[in-house]
């Protein structure tokens, strides 16, 4: 064998004996992996909360439709009873006519014993005619009332069936999303344990917990509440008392100030009025990411307090460092 062939053979042997190094097998940056997983979990949490709100609305629609059906059926039963009653009155008057209780003016004159008797017979004729007209009108009204009530009941029954089907579908979807969220939370917690100790320690640090002055009014009261929660644990889906997710914290903050806002960050992105980044002041709601899956409460024009994510407590952070801003809303002023 030539030297050239021998060298080629040795190279092939050495290459085949050397294990291949895949880029995918390289360990990912633990901090980057943790950040990606928390972002996914935050988005899933928002989707779960929105699905819960949708389910509550659908069930409320079902309750309203069911109540409408019951009320319409009651009205229909009453109208049917009135219809039967008035129909009986009409039948009696009709029967009286056949038995000779009704006369025309000529027959009344011919059979009258006196002028007064004639006048009495005319009055009786007027009363019978009036009674019959009134009974027929009432009968017609009762029939129409029963028809309308039946139509309302049928329409409401259809709405109830539609709402029930929608609620069932939403419940199934919610269960699926919840399962995905719980799995994602497990991944986030596992990723946190893989963080280098200095990184994990920095994330756990509650940061600035000094006393901060707040403005008067609703926004100030909400901000004061949120600041009191600094150091509390983050927990997906929680609204207190010492565990929060982002929208749970801001919702309860404004609730403490006497103002009701939606449970989700997506819902909070539509309350109050919009303001620009330059106009931000204490108490403004700052919603982040295109999915509107995170929200914070402005401390001033540069900082915000928020329930960040798994492994990190409620803390103050620079507004622009939290993430890309999607919406800024002011509740008052």
TrEMBL record:
GO terms for molecular function: cysteine-type peptidase activity. Pfam families: NLPC_P60. SUPFAM superfamilies: Cysteine proteinases (SSF54001). InterPro entries: NLP_P60_dom, Papain-like_cys_pep_sf, PG_Endopeptidase_C40. Residues 216-333 form the NlpC/P60 domain. Residues 1-24 form the signal peptide. It comes from the Bacteria. GO terms for biological process: proteolysis. Residues 34-82, 153-184 form a coiled coil. Keywords: Coiled coil, Hydrolase, Protease, Signal, Thiol protease. Belongs to the peptidase C40 family. This is Cell wall-associated hydrolase, NlpC family.
